[in-house]
Design a protein that fits this description.
The longest helix has 22 residues. A four-stranded antiparallel sheet has the order 1-2-3-4, covered by helices on one side. The protein has about 170 residues and is an alpha+beta fold. It has one domain. Strand 1 and strand 2 form a beta hairpin. Helix 2 crosses helix 4, helix 2 packs across helix 6 and helix 3 packs across helix 4. It contains six helices and four strands.
């Protein structure tokens, strides 16, 4: 058997609640880059069928569209119950913007799931409820700590997490 070096991304799949805020943000950006085509295909399916199921790490995500809003529910694989709707996003925008918004929504959902339902690993996950960032990474208010979108727009470019992103991109 050959020993293979574990990538930082593979390590993130097992860290769960031990992921730092900066690591989650970098993971969000990394997922947007590397899974854009998958997200785009998923967005088109969701817009057509109003329903989509995705499996990430040790979690299952079910997306649904109701009244021009997308939401998702999640559960640990092989668990009987889903957490109630976790995030909701308005789709009252032109169709080409819907796909872009859904791509960002999918990346955020996957980061949420990786934080709560990681793959089994060395780190024993603490018991507890479903934890998420109150303000998602796709919202400019995240970058200004809730103090406005314009301030968030300016701060977004200052906040790069380039070291963590480089680690994620490195095989």
């Amino acid at each position: 058997m050959q020993n293979r070096k574990v990538t930082f991304y593979e390590e993130c799949l097992t860290l769960g609640r031990f992921l730092s805020r900066a690591e989650k943000e970098a993971l969000y950006k990394y997922l947007l880059e590397t899974k854009r085509n998958t997200y785009r295909a998923g967005a088109k399916t969701l817009l057509q069928d109003d329903f989509l199921t995705v499996y990430v790490a040790n979690g299952e995500i079910q997306y649904g569209i109701e009244d021009k809003h997308v939401h998702y529910v999640a559960r640990e694989i092989n668990s009987a119950e889903f957490c109630p709707a976790i995030r909701k996003l308005s789709l009252h925008v032109p169709k080409f913007l819907k796909v872009i918004r859904l791509e960002r929504f999918f990346a955020q959902a996957e980061v949420d799931i990786l934080s709560n339902f990681p793959l089994p690993g060395d780190n024993q996950q603490p018991e507890g409820g479903f934890g998420i960032n109150a303000i998602p990474f796709y919202d400019l208010k995240y970058y200004s700590n809730g103090r406005g979108m314009l301030r968030g727009f300016l701060k977004k470019f200052e906040n790069s997490n380039s070291e963590i992103l480089t680690k994620l991109r490195t095989l």
